[in-house]
Amino acid sequence: MSLQRAATMLICSVFSATAAATEWVIDNDHSRLGFVATYDGVGFATRFERFDTRIRFDPQQLEEGVFDVVVDITSINSDSADRDEGMLGLEWFNAKKFPQARFVSTGFPQARFVSTGFRQTGAGAFEVAGRLTIKGITHSILLPFAWSGVDNGARLKGKTILQRTDYKIGIGEWESDPIIGFEVEIVVDLHLKGKH
Amino acid sequence: MILGMFALGWIAVNYPMSPTKIKLFVWHKSIGITILILVLLRIAWRLTDRTPALPNHMQTWERRLAHTSHALMYVAMVMMPLSGWVINSAANFPLRLYGLIRLPNIAPADKALQSQAELVHMTLFWILVALLLLHIGAAFWHHLKLRDQILTRMLPGTTRRLRKAAD
C-alpha cells in the first residue's frame, strides 16, 4: 500500500511538470458513482458514498487526459442494510481483504498496461480505455461517457456493463447461479469544478 | 398451503446465505401474496354469502369462542402476508410474483421498521399456529365427542348435499 502511494505521488509530480490539461475537482454532493445489479431479475441501484478522483481532462487535448478513481468499497449503499452487509462479505466484494477498487486510465504513465487512452466518439461523446482492478483482479475496460460544460464546471456521465464473475464477485454457488445477475452496469455521474 | 408456508419460511430463514436461500424466499413471498389474495377473496365471499349456523346444542361461550377465533384467524391470515410484504419493502428487496409480476414496495427502506415487521411476522406465526390448533382441535372435538355435522359440513359439496336433503 505504501509502495503504491509512493508510486502515485511520483506520478503526480511527473504530471505536474507537464503542460496541464484542465484538472477537475469533484462536487461530492451531486456526484454519483455506483452500479445497477439485479436480484431475481429486478434491478437495484447501488452507490459508493466515498471515492477519490484525480481527473484531468480537456476535450481538445485528449492525450493529456487522466482518470484515476479510487473507490472505498466499504462505503457501499444500496438502501438495504442487509444487502450492503451481504455484498461486503467474503463471497462478494470481500471488503476485509480488498477495501478499494481502483480504476486507472491508461493515459496515466504509471499504468503498465497497453493503452488506447481517450477517444472522441461524437459531439460531446468520448470513450476512455482503462484498467479496472477489483479484488486484486485487473481487466481492461472501455467506459463511454458524455462530457458537457456546465456553468463554471463540467459534467461527466458514463455507463458500461461488466460481468461480475470477471472480478470474482460472487464466488461459490453465486458464480454459476443467475439469481444475482452476472451483468452489472457501472454508472458514473460526476459534477466537476475547475481546480484553482 | 399455510402449513407449507410455515415450513418454507422456517427453512428459508435458517438456510445459509446462498442462491437457494434467495429462491426459497422468492417462493415464500410469491405463495404468501397468493394466500393474501385468496384470503381477501374468501373474506369477500364470507361477507356476501350466508354462513351456516352453528349447531343448536352449543353454549353461548362456545359460540363466542368460535366466532372470535374465526375472526382472529382471518385477521392473522391477512396480517401475516402483509407484515411479510412490509419486511421485504423495509429491507428494500424487490418483489416479483412467481418471477412474473412486479409488485411495489409498501413501506420505505428502513432497518428499524424491518426489525419491527419481522417481530410482528414471527409473533403472528405463533398466534396462527395456536389458532389453527384450536380450530383443528375443536373440529375433531365436534366430530368425535359431540358427533355433530361441523367437520363433515366443511368438506366440499356438503352444502349441496344438505340443501338437497332439506328440499
Features:
heterodimer; A: 196 residues; mainly beta; Lipocalin; eight-stranded antiparallel β-barrel; 12 strands; B: 167 residues; mainly alpha; two-stranded antiparallel ribbon; 5 helices; elongated
Description:
The complex is a heterodimer of chains A (196) and B (167). In chain A, strands 1-4-5-7-9-10-11-12 form an 8-stranded antiparallel beta barrel. Chain A contains 2 helices and 12 strands. Helix content of chain A is 12%, strand content 47%. Chain A is elongated, with a radius of gyration of 17 Å. Chain A has a single domain (2-194), classed as Beta Barrel (Lipocalin), CATH 2.40.128. Chain A has helices spanning 2-17, 81-88, and strands at residues 23-26, 32-39, 42-48, 51-56, 66-72, 76-77, 100-105, 118-122, 125-134, 137-150, 153-163, 183-194. In chain A, a hairpin with a 2-residue loop joins strand 10 (137-150) and strand 11 (153-163). With 196 residues, chain A is mostly beta strands. Chain B is mainly alpha-helical and 167 residues long. Chain B has one domain (2-50, 60-166). Chain B has helices at 2-14, 19-48, 60-90, 111-146, 158-166; strands at 95-97, 101-103. A two-stranded antiparallel sheet of chain B has the order 1-2. In chain B, strand 1 (95-97) and strand 2 form a beta hairpin. In chain B, helix 1 runs antiparallel to helix 2 and helix 2 (19-48) packs across helix 3.
Summarize, please.
The complex is a heterodimer of chains A (196) and B (167). Chain A is mostly beta strands and 196 residues long.
Strand content of chain B: under 5%
Domain unit count of chain A: 1
Count of all domains of chain B: 1
Taken as a percent bin, the fraction of beta residues of chain A is over 45%
Average pLDDT over all residues of chain B:
89
Order of helices and strands of chain A: HEEEEEEHEEEEEE
Shape of chain A: elongated
Q: What about the largest sheet of chain B?
A: 2 strands, antiparallel
Determine Rg of chain B (CA atoms, Å).
19 Å
The helix/strand class of chain B is mainly alpha
Low-confidence runs of chain B: none
CATH class of chain A: Mainly Beta
Nearest-angstrom radius of gyration of chain A?
17 Å
Calculate the terminal CA-CA distance of chain A, rounded to whole Å: 29 Å
Tally of alpha and pi helices of chain A? 2
Overall mean pLDDT score of chain A?
Answer: 81
Largest sheet of chain A, in brief, is: 8 strands, antiparallel, barrel
